[in-house]
Please model this.
Amino acid sequence: MHCNGNCKQYIAKSNLDGGRYEQGQKRCPECEVFILWDGLWCPCCGRLLRTKPRARKLKNKMSLKRR
Ligand SMILES: [Zn+2]
Ligand SMILES: [Zn+2]
Model:
């Protein structure tokens, strides 16, 4: 299944840099867009949506360890 344009009606406007996942936006790896959608799967292509940013926790942990 590929992008058929359905995602366009759900596309989230980019207002802030970062924090998109916090705003409830999800990214579809197939359509390559951020959409506002309640489901786990893209309403357009059916791919599983990303709901989390890349983990940066490890880095924080390491910096905490350093004095
Ligand atoms: Zn699409
Ligand atoms: Zn999609």
Observations:
- Residues 6-65 form one domain.
